[in-house]
Amino acid sequence: MFRLAIAIILITVTSHFSLILPTRIYPNMKKVRIIGVPEHFNLPWHMAIEEGAFEERGIDLQWAEVPEGTGRMCQMLRSEETDLAIILTEGLVKSITEGNPSKIVQEYISTPLQWGIHVGAKSNYQTIADLKGTKAAISRLGSGSHLMAFVNAQNEGWSTDALKFEIINNLDGAVDALTESTADYFMWEHFTTKPLVDNGIFRRLGDCPTPWPCFVVAATQKFITTEQDTLKHKA
Q1: Cβ atoms within 10 Å, residue 117
Q2: Cα 124–120–89 angle (5° rounding)?
């Protein structure tokens, strides 16, 4: 049943991506660089790569994982270190408003992302309300963890001007920060952090869903300009 479910997901997602997947075989492979976070949302991409689905369509898809998250992926799009990114909607939109010329070319996952609100297992915090005025661990400025701290503050009625942050770069940095009390709480995707909760490293005080679709496909302006046929399924 699990393999069948994954197959259904794969078929659905690859169908959803008809705009970026040509259907006939090309004499010359087109190199396409794509990045994403090392999370379960991207399983269909890995399965499709392993099964040669992109090669059959003349695409040499080169996947790279970016554990630092949204902020780093925005930087890579801006500096054209990648062509495409599977990226959090909120982080990309913020980056675009700050001058990033990249654009959203496709919605990837339309449902909200559930951001878990975590504290160290041995901390004294018991409720989300206890976190008012404390320091949030974030992967980097402009990242999803940074932006969602503002969403959570607004949900709780806190002043966003009073928010404090500790930059921790990645999930390992968050473990260190909450364990060593250099930060007080950390917001990250619910299921990605579940092993840390199950193993008694983090405690989850609650969840904060995004009020928008969680993941989109973004492309650099250069890729959009030079690879319109690939994006429009007309190559």
Answers
A1: 24
A2: 120
Provide the 3-class DSSP secondary structure of residue 218. Answer: strand
Q: Is the pLDDT of residue 132 over 90?
A: yes
Cα 206 to Cα 154: distance, rounded to the nearest angstrom: 15
Residue 131, token pair as written in the block: 């976190």
Sheet hosting strand 84-88, strand order edge to edge: 59-65, 30-36, 84-88, 215-219, 103-109
Residue 159 structure tokens:
């002043």
Helix, coil or strand: residue 123: coil
Taking only the tens place, the pLDDT of each residue in 65-105 is 998 888 899 999 999 999 999 998 988 998 999 999 999 99
> What's the number of CA atoms in the CB half-sphere (13 Å) around residue 140?
14
The SS3 assignment for 3 reads helix
Question: All domains of the chain, ordered by start, with CATH?
Answer: 2-111+213-232 (3.40.190.10), 114-209 (3.40.190.10)
What tokens does 110 get?
């339309």
Residues 6+ apart with CB under 8 A from 81: 33, 75
Cβ contact 214:89 at 8 Å: yes
For residue 148 the two structure tokens come to 């969602």
